[in-house]
Write a structure and sequence with these properties.
Its main location: membrane. The protein is an alpha/beta fold. The chain folds into two domains: 220 residues, no CATH class; 435 residues, Alkaline Phosphatase, subunit A. It contains 27 helices and 18 strands. The protein has an eight-stranded mixed β-sheet with strand order 7-6-10-1-11-12-4-13, with helices on both faces. The protein has a four-stranded antiparallel β-sheet with strand order 15-16-17-18. A two-stranded antiparallel sheet has the order 2-3. Helix 1 packs across helix 2. It is globular. The two termini are 54 Å apart. The protein binds (2R)-2,3-dihydroxypropyl phosphate and manganese (II) ion. (2R)-2,3-dihydroxypropyl phosphate binds next to helix 14. The site of manganese (II) ion has 6 residues, from helix 14.
Length: 720
């Protein structure tokens, strides 16, 4: 025993030994902090392994630099590095506790989004155990100061230092490879900062964030206001008049947006084994006061939901890579729908049963001007309430009513569902329709989660009717993007009853539902070829809100002169006459392929392509260059991000005050009584959980920020 102890001490008296000690302690400490101070949503053995490895690469790299340094300076360097990394970890722990997110350079630069009085509330959120992150630093200082370990002044061979550096790069590369095998597109698709920390550790995240921030701010530095001129001209040249039949028919009404996760148009009015897949949505779709669009396409890129939101709230496209809400949502200036509605006297709120950091909503929504963002931490979570990316729809919508009834009217409210999300996991107790029988296990349960989503919408609509909100609101529903990706052609063919699937079929498979209901609205089905970029101008038309000079790339679909050109994010398109998809050309009406274009066709197609490329390119210019900061519109007041706080306590207080002041909430109209009893749900979780109560945000067992690929093979990650 004594001999072993002696050996260890002798080892620690060498520079390499000290390096091993400081690296090892930092590694262990970081791992413990990841496990106990953050809710990263680690699932399964592989993710556990990756998390365990993640602090190591950078620790070896950064402390290993000390081995190149001579004498006592080497020790100084390692200790200072340890202290810096620990302070950074400490700061992130505190920030995370308040915001469930990590510190980014954009926040440090003072974009305002971080100014939720963190400084003032710091004392309130500190926990004694937070200081444990400094224990190892104090320990290594102490053993040096008290002479337990002697400083080794001998030179450490350069080749050995180099070997350590190479080792660190090897560990980092292995970490990255493992991360990518479990979650493809980790760094390009930019889902959630939590993901990057979970897979690559805090240091890698900071480095990644730093590189992105520099790249991004360089692009913005070069941008000039004059770049808006050609864009202004393009938008003006393509401007179309509103349809007076529809203009302003929903003026002053509440706006309720229901985001139907991954719902595709082809399930509408369709049966499976004699049962309607979406009976409630069908009823809404076929209502005489519902205006539906059956040639409406999703236009998202990698940012999926986030791209859909970007288009809907801004009439700007997502970026060709990643999610614009993540890369630019914190810092850019927007003239978004919530801010416009706010300036029209509306209250504005987004509701989502996932963690607020996903797709950077916690920051982007402030830039869009949302007064409230009711995310997962606002909801009561009990065991079994969460599945996949957030709360199960029935429970989410039911609990959302609690906030909806408090909002001063008129309000603009967006409810984002999530249960119908890849990989379409649903427990038996929530299933009430058979799975499809294509034999593709990814595709088959889709019909079941879609059916569940529909039931949850049915429950919400009943509540809205019962409380009278239905008649005071313009209710819009839309599917954000495909649920069944193009990787499942045989299954798609079987579901659609086709022999095989062409690129034309795949293009048409990108249709998603879009429908608007308002009392007095002349219903029917509009067949215009249109897409998500057109939603905002269409809604503004119905609300009778003019936005002259606004930088919108979409158009009011109800206009008689609507241009019917739908751009996909990769430059493919659907137009009234031609469809281009995956490099093939078709007649849109018939699906017949065009192989030999005539000169006249070539010219027509070129014109459409030029339009598509121009709108995508200009939209990217606006986002990449943050050009809207130069756009002064006399009817729009710039959003001040620091006006908003999504801190639960302060937001609820603010809501209470707003309600008191306006006296227009549903509760007020119900003589001060809550309407929650009017909300009926058959969610089975409510019965089985009645006695087992726990509270909301801190429940880590239900961490929804989990990624789907963890429960499926890596090859299917393209679905996500
Ligand atoms: C996550 C949810 C899913 O919060 O909106 O996003 P998606 O994977 O569909 O882009
Ligand atoms: Mn989605």
């Amino acid at each position: 025993m004594n001999r072993l102890w002696g050996k260890i001490r002798r080892g620690l008296n060498t520079k390499f030994g000290f390096f091993m000690l400081i690296t090892g302690l930092f590694w262990i400490k970081s791992y413990i902090a990841y496990q106990t101070k953050f809710t990263l949503g680690v699932q399964g053995g592989m993710q556990e392994l990756i998390l365990a490895i993640s602090p190591l690469g950078f620790a070896i790299l950064l402390f290993g630099i000390g081995l190149y340094i001579r004498g006592k300076w080497s020790y100084w360097y390692m200790i200072i590095m340890d202290a810096i990394l620990s302070v950074w970890l400490f700061a992130n722990i505190l920030y995370y506790r308040e915001f469930s997110d990590f510190i980014t350079f954009n926040l440090i630069k003072g974009s305002g989004a971080a100014s939720d009085n963190l400084g003032k509330s710091l004392m309130g959120i500190l926990r004694p155990t937070d200081f444990l992150v400094f224990v190892d630093v104090l320990f290594v200082v102490a053993i040096l100061v008290f002479g337990f370990v002697k400083i080794d002044k001998s030179k450490f061979k350069l080749v050995n230092s180099f070997a350590v550096t190479i080792l660190s790069i090897g560990v980092l590369a292995a970490n990255l490879a493992l991360a990518y095998s479990n979650r493809s597109g980790l760094l390009t698709r930019t889902f959630d900062n939590n993901y990057i920390v979970k897979y690559l550790g805090l240091q890698s995240f900071t480095l990644y964030d730093g590189v992105k921030t520099v790249q991004n701010s360089n692009k913005k530095k070069e941008a000039k206001g004059s770049q808006l001129n050609p864009i202004k001209k393009f938008i003006k040249d393509n401007d179309i008049p509103a349809n007076i039949e529809y203009k302003g028919v929903a003026k002053g009404k509440n706006v309720i947006i229901i985001h139907l996760e991954s719902l595709q148009q082809f399930v509408i009015n369709k049966k499976w084994k004699g049962k309607e897949i979406t009976p409630n949505i069908n009823k809404f779709y076929n209502d005489k006061n519902t205006l539906a669009y059956d040639n409406f396409f999703n236009q998202v890129g990698q940012g999926k939901t986030a791209d859909a939101e970007m288009m809907l709230e801004n009439s700007l496209f997502g970026l060709p890579e990643g999610s614009a809400m993540v890369t630019d949502g914190t810092t850019n200036t927007f003239q978004a729908m919530p801010a416009i509605m706010d300036q029209q006297g509306y209250s504005t709120a987004a509701f989502h049963g996932d963690v607020s950091s996903f797709w950077n909503r916690d920051n982007a929504y402030k830039s869009f001007g949302y007064q409230y963002f009711f995310s997962k931490q606002y909801y009561t979570l009990k065991k079994g309430y969460v599945s996949g990316y957030g709360m199960k729809d029935k429970l989410f919508l039911q609990q959302s009513a609690e906030y909806l009834e408090q909002l001063p009217q008129p309000f603009y409210a967006k409810l984002i569902t999530v249960s119908n999300h890849y990989p379409y996991g649903i427990e038996k107790k929530n299933v009430s329709i058979d799975p499809w029988d294509t034999g593709d296990s990814t595709v088959d349960p889709y019909v079941q989660t879609a059916h569940y989503l529909d039931q949850s919408i049915g429950e919400l609509l009943s509540y809205l009717k019962k409380t009278g909100l239905y008649d005071k609101s313009m209710i819009m529903m839309y599917g954000d993007h495909y649920g069944i990706s193009n990787n499942h052609k045989p299954a798609i063919a079987k579901i659609l009853g086709l022999k095989g699937v062409t690129n034309y079929d795949l293009a048409m498979f990108q249709k998603v539902p879009f429908m608007i209901h308002a009392p007095g609205l002349k219903g029917g089905v509009n067949h215009n070829y249109s897409g998500e970029i057109d939603v905002m101008p269409t809604l503004l038309g119905l609300l009778g809100i003019d936005t002259p000079g606004a930088y919108h790339f979409g158009h009011d679909i109800n206009s008689k002169q609507f241009n019917q050109i739908v751009a996909f994010r990769n430059g493919d398109f659907v137009s009234e006459k031609y469809t281009k998809y995956g490099g093939d050309l078709y007649y849109t009406a018939t699906g017949e392929q065009i192989t030999d274009e005539t000169a006249a066709q070539k010219a027509e197609i070129k014109k459409i392509q030029t339009y598509v490329n121009t709108e995508l390119g200009y939209s990217d210019k606006i986002i990449n260059g943050d050009l809207l900061r130069f756009a002064d519109l006399d009817w729009f007041k710039k959003v001040n991000k620091s006006d908003y706080s999504y801190n639960k306590k302060s937001a609820l207080k603010q809501l209470e005050e707003a309600e008191k002041k306006s006296k227009t909430s549903l509760i007020d109209q119900n003589d001060g009584k809550s309407t929650l009893d009017d909300y009926k749900t058959d969610a089975p979780e409510l019965e089985s959980n009645q006695n087992k109560s726990s509270s909301s945000s801190s429940s880590s067992d239900d961490q929804s920020s989990s990624d789907s690929s963890s429960s499926s093979s890596a090859s299917s990650s393209a679905d996500k």
